[in-house]
Amino acid sequence: MSFSMQVKDEVARLPLRLDCCQRAELAAFAQVVGIVRLGKQRVLVMTTELPAVARRIFLLSKNLGWNGVIVVRRYSRPRHRRLFTVQVPLEQQKHFLLQELGFVDSDLMLRDSLDSRILKKDCCKKAFLRGCFLGCGFLGKPSRAYHLELFLKTHEAAIEVTETLACFGLLPICRERRGGHEVYLKEADQVSEFLRIIEANQGVLQFENCRVLKDMRNQVNRLVNCETANLEKAVEAGLKQVAVIKEIDSLAGLGILRPPLREVAELRLQYPGASLAELGKLLSPPLSKSGVNHRFREIYRIADQLRKEQ
């Protein structure tokens, strides 16, 4: 099971609480996965591949006084899968479901956005986002990338979700995609906060564990790369110094060097891969890295003079 499916399974099993929150969550399901089927009886049909989500939709409608049924359809192509549809008649006991969920006004005219009373409280906003994630959300595997997206069918729905996320300090990106609109979060802190908002506590723990391991691995890689680069730089500098010392030896002999310079030159020939700090510790008395570097600059100057004299 993918990480996204694991989190959805956890969230779908959260207890149902206040009626206002249940109404907001069911409104989210109706908005992102629902269609109205016309016929002898108008029915709201909400479809999902996850049995836990279908069960939650059914319980939400039942708790709010709306009788529905779950229908399971099996498909063999393009791949073997099951689709669960929750079918709820729109008119029951002289009430109209879309009006209860805030999609139409008192004159049964379709609204551009949900009735503001549906998302009045913070707890209802969280329930609305929970329903959106369960219905149309995708969460990338945190060990690979930090990515959470919600796919909405209409521009108005995308704006509503974006504004609801902004109420909790989240800054999603919204873009048009073929067939709808995508609202997504890319930063690790934002994704983690979203999971906290929808109460995916186990998902947060798993996400943060992966995040810590990933950060530690990246830090180790940076340190290793840095050490490797420093080592390569030290070896390259050492080979260059060895070449200059051998050039001096072939032109005039190392005897022309003052004793301190000759000492460091002979050590370099003996330890071509050692760093300047390591060479400094081998000198008698020991010398700092900058002191060793100063002696090599003097050796380079002597080598330049010998070349000019040839």
Features:
4-stranded antiparallel sheet, 2 domains, 55% helix, Endonuclease I-creI
- N-to-C SSE string, H for helix and E for strand: HHEEHEEEEHHEEHEEHHHHH
* DSSP strand content: 15-25%
Number of domains: 2
Largest sheet descriptor: 4 strands, antiparallel
Helical stretch count? 11
Keywords: Cell cycle, Cell division, DNA-binding
Domain WhiA LAGLIDADG-like: 126-217
Protein name: Probable cell division protein WhiA
InterPro entries: Homing_endonucl, Sporu_reg_WhiA_N_dom, Sporulation_regulator_WhiA, Sporulation_regulator_WhiA_C, WhiA_LAGLIDADG_dom
Verbal overview:
It is built from eleven helices and ten strands. With 310 residues, it is of the alpha+beta class. It folds into two domains: 3-199, Roll (Endonuclease I-creI); 232-309, no CATH class. A hairpin with a 2-residue loop joins strand 9 (173-177) and strand 10 (180-185). Helix 7 (188-197) runs antiparallel to helix 8 (201-251). The mean pLDDT is 89. Involved in cell division and chromosome segregation. Residues 126-217 form the WhiA LAGLIDADG-like domain. Belongs to the WhiA family. One of its GO terms (biological process) is cell division.
Walk me through the topology.
Layout lengths: L2 H10 L6 H15 E4 L5 E6 L2 H13 L5 E7 L5 E9 L1 E2 L2 E2 H4 L21 H15 E3 L8 E5 L2 H12 L6 E5 L2 E6 L2 H10 L3 H51 L7 H12 L5 H7 L6 H21 L1
Antiparallel strand pairs: 1-2, 2-4, 3-4, 5-6, 7-8, 8-10, 9-10
Structure summarized in a few sentences:
With 310 residues, the chain is an alpha+beta fold.
